[in-house]
């Protein structure tokens, strides 16, 4: 058996049992259309069973010492990294991203497991001076309880570990509902966790083709104490409303509309490379992908020239092929959205610099595209394209750039390139975003708090802040001393 077939699991995991169902749904390779596997299409009843299993596993799981939980997480991390190549190939086949990016995602996703294996041992409460001579104040940090993770297809592995590693470290069992396009990576991860020795019921994976039915259970069942969602803003709003009925805690990692600002004094080569990495990674299908390039007058033409040259060099193809930089889009709807944004921008006076059409490879492959002279009334100004379209806007001064960057209901990631240190501070402080990258095109790391403001979300993932999302504070007043 090769590493890849060993990782190809076609059953869901509920209460420590690999579960099949009468109804199944296909998982296809977006590069070839090939059906890779059929996985169980579970129902609301299965989801309730998974929640019950997690709830039953909770007392023993929270009683384990932090060090015992850390050892299991460490074992999971080592297994994920030992299977980096097999997991990466599986991910490329079900999701489409180039193999180099998939390998990077396995390492990035695993880094959360490693980090929280360490951080699990440092969950600390506090003792405070009492409010009377005979009183003392104790503050405990306790695990919140069963966590339900609902995750997207664009990062099939990392969005799961970014939620589950801190939850498990804090003492919370999990129920995972992976995206219907990419359940295979989730199931492979669960198999590796099982091999690492996680007890039955601590990790459950509910695969389903009808996410609303499962989402309804996970957001309304009182035994679920926390929902952690990564996905689109409309679905996040709906889930948040559903959580209100049981006053459930929720973390929301939602959509973005990232500006990438290039000032006149920027290092042009570095800015172009940053833009390529930030815009075209994962075919433009990441929440922190640049959605709008804002370029100052004095550097506008030079930047466009250089960008067009670099974009023309991007090799499009099956992510398994050597040298491919851009794979297919996830599905036909994704292609339709990119095309509608291009059409709208060109109809309203945008200038096509390169690309603009479906790629000759057919299917859901699309040409990397650059459109210049984009203005505020075009759809790309306010909507997340989630595809390989780089729209370039022009601006005159710093105040205008900051105003344009902030003119959106989103506030996830923002990027800018400049050299003047006063400008760097002004712009950094003026951007209403949860994350700002200065002279950098990629900012995700397990060491920093990831998350957005405004309609981009609630809560943070990564760093010690990501662990606190899975704990509750308990204040104990000790009197009569
Ligand atoms: P999506 O909202 O369509 O789906 C996300 C998940 O929600 C999937 O598992 C899906 O099955 C499930 N879902 C859909 N409808 C549901 C419902 N009614 N009830 C319960 N679950 C439901 O998003 P997507 O297309 O998979 O992902 C792309 C979006 O995710 C983009 O908007 C992107 O910006 C965002 N995203 C955000 C982050 C972040 O960290 N902020 C990271 C990655 C992706």
TrEMBL record:
It holds the Pfam family Aldedh. Its EC number is 1.2.1.-. The keyword Hydrolase does not apply. It is an enzyme of class 1 (oxidoreductase). PANTHER family: SUCCINATE-SEMIALDEHYDE DEHYDROGENASE, MITOCHONDRIAL. NCBIfam families: SSADH (TIGR01780). This is NAD-dependent succinate-semialdehyde dehydrogenase. It comes from Halomonas koreensis.
């Amino acid at each position: 058996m090769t590493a890849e077939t060993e990782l190809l699991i076609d059953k869901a995991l509920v209460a420590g049992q690999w579960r099949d169902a009468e109804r199944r749904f296909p998982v296809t390779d977006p590069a070839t259309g090939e059906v890779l596997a059929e996985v169980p299409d579970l129902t609301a009843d299965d989801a309730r069973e998974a929640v019950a299993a997690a709830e039953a596993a909770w007392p023993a799981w929270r009683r384990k010492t932090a060090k015992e939980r850390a050892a299991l997480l460490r074992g999971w991390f080592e297994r994920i990294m030992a299977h980096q190549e097999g997991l990466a190939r599986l991910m490329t086949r079900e999701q489409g991203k180039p193999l180099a990016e998939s390998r990077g995602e396995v390492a990035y996703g695993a880094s959360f497991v490693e980090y929280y294996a360490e951080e699990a041992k440092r969950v600390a409460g506090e003792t405070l001076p009492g409010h009377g001579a005979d009183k003392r104040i104790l503050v405990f940090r306790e695990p919140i309880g069963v966590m339900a993770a609902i995750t997207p297809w664009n990062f099939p592995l990392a969005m799961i570990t970014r939620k589950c590693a801190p939850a498990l470290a804090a003492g919370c069992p999990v129920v995972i509902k992976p995206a219907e396009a990419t359940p295979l990576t989730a199931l492979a991860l669960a198999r590796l966790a099982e091999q690492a020795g996680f007890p039955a019921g601590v990790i459950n994976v509910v695969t389903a083709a009808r996410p609303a039915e499962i989402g309804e259970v996970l957001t309304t069942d009182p035994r679920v104490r926390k929902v952690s969602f990564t996905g689109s803003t409309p679905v996040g709003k709906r889930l948040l409303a559903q959580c209100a009925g049981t006053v459930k805690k929720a973390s929301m990692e939602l959509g973005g509309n990232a500006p990438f600002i290039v000032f006149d004094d920027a290092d042009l080569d570095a800015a172009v490379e940053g833009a390529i990495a930030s815009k075209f990674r994962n075919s433009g299908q990441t929440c922190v992908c640049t959605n709008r390039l804002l370029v100052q007058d004095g550097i506008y033409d030079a930047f466009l020239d250089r960008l067009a040259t670099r974009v023309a060099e991007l090799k499009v193809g099956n992510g398994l092929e050597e040298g491919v930089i851009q794979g297919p889009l996830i599905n036909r709807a994704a292609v339709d959205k990119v095309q509608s944004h291009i059409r709208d921008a060109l109809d309203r006076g945008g200038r096509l610099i390169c690309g603009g059409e479906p790629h000759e490879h057919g299917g859901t492959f699309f040409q990397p595209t650059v459109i210049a002279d984009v203005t505020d009334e075009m759809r790309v100004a306010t909507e997340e394209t989630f595809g390989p379209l780089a729209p370039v806007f022009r601006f005159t001064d710093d105040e205008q750039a900051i105003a344009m960057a902030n003119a959106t209901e989103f506030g996830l990631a923002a990027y800018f390139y400049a050299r003047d240190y006063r400008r760097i501070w002004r712009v950094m402080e003026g951007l209403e975003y949860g994350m700002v990258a200065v002279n950098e095109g990629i900012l995700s790391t397990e060491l920093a708090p990831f998350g957005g403001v405004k309609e981009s979300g609630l809560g943070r993932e990564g760093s010690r802040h990501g662990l606190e999302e899975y704990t509750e504070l308990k204040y104990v007043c000790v009197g009569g001393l």
